[in-house]
């Protein structure tokens, strides 16, 4: 292995320069970084990360001991622990025991020998070996026995509650002959669950226990389903056991298959062949990793507390009512990812309620025209409109939700509060609910902003560190750096994208620049004022941004995102509900290279839609059933997974969703800073769409050079004065 001395000689630089480059520390010129990296490659140098970490006093290793990684619960646990710790620069060393005590004891010896920063274990042992020598964190999963040790913590779901809720369901359904299929070997959680369930069922049902090694669960499944008399219910400890029971029964039974209840790791869309009692092992892995990492980074040495709740039975929808007789709903919505996802899920709503649903999907302008001209027609029962139109359309379009036969407080309690009243109320009356809320965000190529060579080039050019832009002046400066026609060394052709091909889109793309300066489109008397120095300055900033794009006008946000996803651009600003396109590797070249942040200036526009019950609908009860269904945790999460967005709180905490769309947490915070509906006491029922079209036309005229900035804003002012007549004071 070549040494630092060898690389320094090969590159013709000092030992310190080589050390700084290899350790990514210090300020080294871009030219010397290239020399050192090229020399290291020629000599076959490979960084010994573990040795470097040990010199720093930490192995940066987490040992994870699991029974296996065939069962989904352990896969989910491992995936989240690996994701979080590897992202923090740790190695996760995985060991599997096969639930064999002698093997696990040997593994503990190997784990101790690695001098890890922590050990996480799902144990089959009654006592953990050599705890008297431990001075680092150990976390035992699904271990319910008390351990009095300052460095040992337990993270477990509530298996007593699981037994109680499954027993209640068994009694409700009147099952009599039940098989309980568990894993072999000792397990504190298995013992607690089995004993509690048996005690609760008592004489109500006959409970027969079965167990097997994980490798032999299929063989044991045939024994269970072939038993005489036949079991009317099989309860399993893992979804894989339930799968084996189902397959064995399908092979051997000509008559009805036994019902199956399984304890299963949480899935957004569970297997519908059996009833799952869910425990969220993805959340367990995330929760353990985040708290443990915080503990390690703070160099704290104490046991940890983990708050883990059972997901339990889902998809039962106890509040939904079955329609009496023939029933149908007509829903009007915008063409969007959320509408496409909803279309796929509507058969589930019909199956659960008996209510047939007709979904009418229209383009943006056509949707607005349809809502504006429908009058007292009762054809549409539920209407999804844009958040920007609510002030103008709410009163004449929607039934106040307080008048609907709906448990409104219960429904609202499940939604995030950060969206505020902008998505629900007009003039103090609650008319709608946020359907697919979104917020403008900054997305950027994280691989470029973290690249040592790129960062050094920026420093040499500007004598400052490469920032994630916090202002629009900074944004333009960084965009210029990443535009090859201005900076020939740029790794990308262009710095950013814009969307101004349609007037309304252009206004939204532009307005955050004005709002970031603390200015408004209304003057101090509440009168619309477009021909102001503040708007002129913001327009000049926007025109400068245009110079760092490929010149595409992009009529809609999706087109702007598509341009960024090709990898030719360093940054883009778009609404968060269009960002799902960026993680689809079929279309995107920026998968796994995506960073995100609050929009520069910190004044994003709100976007997306709201949904409410039509004022003229004659099917208000059925409409309320739809709202209860679509705002349930189960359906909201699926809508989000399929590319829509949701205001449901669970969609922002669901580990599967936040891993897929990591910007959602930042989007939730950004809602607090967002605005959209321009309101002034001088303009009751202000028509935001008309205003945005006027402003957007001025933006387009300025950017394309059809008019000077002053002329475009002056012309926009004249049109605004014709369209909007202020109310006298």
Description:
With 729 residues, this protein is of the alpha/beta class. It has four domains: 4-47, lambda repressor-like DNA-binding domains (434 Repressor (Amino-terminal Domain), Orthogonal Bundle); 61-157 and 285-297, Rossmann fold (3-Layer(aba) Sandwich); 327-434 and 607-671, D-Maltodextrin-Binding Protein, domain 2; 439-605 and 676-723, D-Maltodextrin-Binding Protein, domain 2 (3-Layer(aba) Sandwich). It is 42% helix and 15% strand. A hairpin with a 2-residue loop joins strand 15 and strand 16. The protein is flat, with a radius of gyration of 30 Å. Residues 49-56 have low confidence and may be disordered.
Keywords:
single chain, 4 domains, five-stranded parallel β-sheet, Rossmann fold, flat, 729 residues, six-stranded mixed β-sheet, 22 strands, 15% strand, alpha/beta, D-Maltodextrin-Binding Protein, domain 2, 434 Repressor (Amino-terminal Domain), 27 helices
Task: Give the beta-strand count.
Answer: 22
Spatial ordering of strands, largest sheet: 7-6-8-9-10-11
Task: Note the overall shape.
Answer: flat
The CATH first-level class of the largest domain comes to Alpha Beta
């Amino acid at each position: 292995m070549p040494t630092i001395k060898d690389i320094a000689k090969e590159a013709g630089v000092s030992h310190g320069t080589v050390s700084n480059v290899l350790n990514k520390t210090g300020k080294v010129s871009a030219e010397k970084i290239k020399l050192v990296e090229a020399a290291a490659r020629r000599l076959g140098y490979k960084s010994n990360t573990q040795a470097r970490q040990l010199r720093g006093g930490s192995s940066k290793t987490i040992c994870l001991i699991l029974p296996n990684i065939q069962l989904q619960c352990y896969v989910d646990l491992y995936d989240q622990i690996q994701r979080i710790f590897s992202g923090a620069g740790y190695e996760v060393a995985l060991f599997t025991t096969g639930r064999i005590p002698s093997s696990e004891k040997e593994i503990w010896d190997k784990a101790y020998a690695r001098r890890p920063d922590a050990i996480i274990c799902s144990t089959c042992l009654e006592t953990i070996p050599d705890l008297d020598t431990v001075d680092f964190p150990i976390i035992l999963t699904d271990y319910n026995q008390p351990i009095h040790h300052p460095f040992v913590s337990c993270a477990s779901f509530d298996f007593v509650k699981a037994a109680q809720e499954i027993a209640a369901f068994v009694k409700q359904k009147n099952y009599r002959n039940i098989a309980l299929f568990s894993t072999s070997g000792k397990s504190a959680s298995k013992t607690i669950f089995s004993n509690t369930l048996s005690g609760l069922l008592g004489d109500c049902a006959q409970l027969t226990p079965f167990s097997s090694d994980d490798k032999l669960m299929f063989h044991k499944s045939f024994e269970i389903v072939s038993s005489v008399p036949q079991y009317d219910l099989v309860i399993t400890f893992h979804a894989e056991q339930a799968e084996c029971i189902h397959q064995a029964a399908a092979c051997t039974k000509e008559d009805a298959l036994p019902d199956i209840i399984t304890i299963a790791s949480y899935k957004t869309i569970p297997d519908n062949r059996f009833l799952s009692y869910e425990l969220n092992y993805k959340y367990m892995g995330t929760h353990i990793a985040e708290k443990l990492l915080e503990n390690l980074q703070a160099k704290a040495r104490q046991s940890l507390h983990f708050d883990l709740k059972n997901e339990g039975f889902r998809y039962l929808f106890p509040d939904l009512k079955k329609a009496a007789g023939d029933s149908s709903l007509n829903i009007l919505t915008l063409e969007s990812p959320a509408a496409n996802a909803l279309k796929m899920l509507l058969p589930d709503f019909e199956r659960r309620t008996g209510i047939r649903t007709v979904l009418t999907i229209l383009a943006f302008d056509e949707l607005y025209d349809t809502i504006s001209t429908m009058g007292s027609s009762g054809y549409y029962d539920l209407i999804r409109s844009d958040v920007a139109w609510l002030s103008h359309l709410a009163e004449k379009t929607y039934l106040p939700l307080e008048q609907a036969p709906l448990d409104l407080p219960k429904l609202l309690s499940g939604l995030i509060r950060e969206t505020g009243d902008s998505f629900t109320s007009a003039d103090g009356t609650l008319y709608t609910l946020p359907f697919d809320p979104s917020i403008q965000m900054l997305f950027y190529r994280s691989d470029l902003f973290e690249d040592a060579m790129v960062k050094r080039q920026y420093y040499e050019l500007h004598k400052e560190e490469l920032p994630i832009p916090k202002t629009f002046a900074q944004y333009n400066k960084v965009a210029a750096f990443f535009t090859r026609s201005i900076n020939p060394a740029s790794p990308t052709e262009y710095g950013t994208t814009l969307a101004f091909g349609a007037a309304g889109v252009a206004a939204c793309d532009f307005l955050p620049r004005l709002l970031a300066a603390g200015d408004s489109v209304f003057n101090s008397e509440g009168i619309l004022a477009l021909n102001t120095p503040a708007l002129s300055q913001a327009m000049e900033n926007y025109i400068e941004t245009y110079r760092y794009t490929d010149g595409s006008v992009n009529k809609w946000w999706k087109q702007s995102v598509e341009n960024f996803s090709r990898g030719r651009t360093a940054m883009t600003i778009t609404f968060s509900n269009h960002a799902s396109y960026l993680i689809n590797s079929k279309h995107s070249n920026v998968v796994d290279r995506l960073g995100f942040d609050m929009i520069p200036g910190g004044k994003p526009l709100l976007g997306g839609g709201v949904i409410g019950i039509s004022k003229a609908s004659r099917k208000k009860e059925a409409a309320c059933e739809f709202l209860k269904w679509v705002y349930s945790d189960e359906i909201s999460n699926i809508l989000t997974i399929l590319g829509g967005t949701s205001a449901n709180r669970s969609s922002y905490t669901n580990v599967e969703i936040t891993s897929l769309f990591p910007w959602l947490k930042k989007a939730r915070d950004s809602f607090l800073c967002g605005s959209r509906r321009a309101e002034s006491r001088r303009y009751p029922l202000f028509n935001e769409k008309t205003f945005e079209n006027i402003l957007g036309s001025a933006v387009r005229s300025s950017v394309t050079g059809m008019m000077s900035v002053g002329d475009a804003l002056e012309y926009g002012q004249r049109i605004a004065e014709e369209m909007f007549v202020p109310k006298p004071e």
